[in-house]
Each structure stands twice: as C-alpha cells, then as structure tokens.
Amino acid sequence: MRGQPQVRPAEVVAVRTLSPSIVRVALDVPGFESLQVPDEGCVLTFPLDGSTVAGDDVERGHWYTVRRVEGDRLTFDVIVHEGGAASAWARRGRPGDQLSLTYQNSWFTRPDGAEWQLLLVDTTGLPAAGRIAEEAPAGMRTIVVAEVPSAADEQELPGAEVTWVHNPEVVHGGSELERIAREVQLPDGPGYVYVAGEAAATRAVRKYLRHELELPADSYGVIGYWRCDAAAWAERVARSTVDIGELWERAEAEATDEQEALDLYEERLGHAGLL
Questions:
Q1: Is 251 exposed, middle or buried (0-12, 13-18, 19+ CB in 10 A)?
Q2: Residue 183 CB-density burial (10 A; 0-12 exposed, 13-18 middle, 19+ buried)
Q3: Strands 73-79 and 22-28
Q4: What pLDDT score was predicted for residue 2?
Q5: Rounded to 5 degrees, what angle do the CA atoms 18, 24, 28 make?
Q6: What pLDDT digit, counting tens, does each position of 202-261 carry?
C-alpha cells in the first residue's frame, strides 16, 4: 500500500444497475495513476444522509476493485446490500455527484510461467475476476467459478470459462466457497488460484489449498474481502488488548513466506478470540 495519500476528488459520470446486487459507477479522477495490476483496489468514500458530496459528513471509506481503467476514468462495481452509505448512495447516485478516493493496493501475484488461472469468487470478487479475465495474457486459460445470490446476478465475463453457483445465503455469510474449491478439478501444469470473498469462507479455502492440496506458496492468493460479522468483530477487537498490527508484524518476522506468516497470524488471532 502506498503511504498516506492525498484525497482525490472523484466526479460521478455514470451510474448503471447491472443486476439486483451490482451497480456500476464510472468516475473521473484527474491524475489517476494505475498500479497496472488487475485486482487493484482503491478506498472510496461515499456521502451520508442523502448528500451528493463526500465532504465532512461521510462514511468510513471502504476498498473497491477498479473494474476498468481508461485514462482518468475509473469504473467500479458497487455491491449493494442492506445498510451502509455505499449501498444507499448507489441506489440514488447520479452523474455530477462527488465521491473521494484515497489509497491504492493490489493482491494479485500470479507467478511467471503460469499457464492457467482459476478464480473462485463470491459476488464481491466479481469485479476483480472480470478484470483479471480481460487482462489475461494471450493464450492463458481462465476459469471462473462465481457464487452469486441468483441467476439475475450473472454477467458476461469475456475470455473466461464461467460456472455460476446460485446461493441466496451468500449475502448473509453462508458462503459455499470451500465446498466449491473442493469440487473443482485443477488443470494440469503450472497455474494460479485466486480466491476472493467472505473472510471465514476464504480462510477455509486457503487452509485447503495449503494444508490438504499442499500447493506451492506462490501458486495461490486468497483475499477476505468482507466479514459477515464485521460489527461484532470490530467490537471484539476494540475490547481486546491485542494489537493485531503488531501480531501480523511478528508473524511476518518469524515466517519464511507469506503463507506461513498467515498460518501463525490466524493461529494467534484464534487464541485471542479474534478470528
């Protein structure tokens, strides 16, 4: 992640409902410099209480995948759900509204020499899966298995072999990503598995890939995009005496690679009651 960033104004130029769960938003962000990584994300801040400007009265910013970059114009897909300023804004947003953008980061680390990529995602991971598929090197096989609430949330993902799993409970955290991962047949040859979705579900998939399939540490990346128990978890962290940042730094210092560090970190979070 880059250091403390400047807050960039982002003017809304288009808002379009893609499906019951997804609203696509196009923003003009003058001077934007892409990280050139297909799952790059930015922190977007949305106005509260019906305002059209993300000024003093705003929600805490959240990470969103940059679905597409065309110069200074960025496309984001906002996942709508009950509660939250982003969802409320997405249902009423219009061109001319003002948002703000800060941090940039990315997590996609496909190794050189990969011949295929498998993208296991829930609805929140669809924007990343779409961009990864679109920007795949020529000749690379891209397989997507996407867990969405219903068939109404399916979309075209050009360049990918797509399987849709319909699960209405995914919006409440009842994800089936671990079952899906266990049922997918990995192609032969070197490849990369990318997993993005609810935190507990993706954590279970990571354990399967690492400890049961024993895949090389650089052949998969697993990202928890959201938590179904986010409010309760934040309360537990606030009550705890554990510094989770220090916990991660210590795990990194003791481990030989990121996957071993994650093992140590998750084990210690579990002992602290913070998983």
A1: buried
A2: exposed
A3: antiparallel
A4: 42
A5: 155
A6: 999 999 999 999 999 999 999 999 998 888 988 999 999 999 999 999 999 999 999 999
CA distance 61 to 195: 23
Task: Using alpha carbons, select from 228, 211, 189, 195 the residue that is nearest to residue 266.
Answer: 211
Fold designation for 8-105:
Elongation Factor Tu (Ef-tu); domain 3 (2.40.30)
What is the maximum span of the chain, computed from C-alpha positions, in angstroms? 53
Report yes or no: 76 and 25 within 8 Å, Cβ to Cβ. Answer: yes
Give me the amino acid identity at 27.
Answer: L
Which residues is 53 bridged to in the sheet? 98
Please check whether residue 162 is in contact with residue 144, taking contact to mean a CB–CB distance below 8 angstroms: yes
Q: Alpha-carbon dihedral of residues 51, 56, 57, 63, nearest 10 degrees?
A: 90
Put the strands of the sheet holding 141-148 in their side by side order: 161-166, 141-148, 116-122, 191-198, 220-226
* Secondary-structure percent of the chain, ordered helix, strand, coil, rounded to 5: 30, 30, 35
Of 230, 226, 239, give the one whose Cα is nearest residue 273: 239
- Give bridge partners of residue 76 from the DSSP assignment: 25, 66
Q: 107-228 — its CATH code?
A: 3.40.50.80
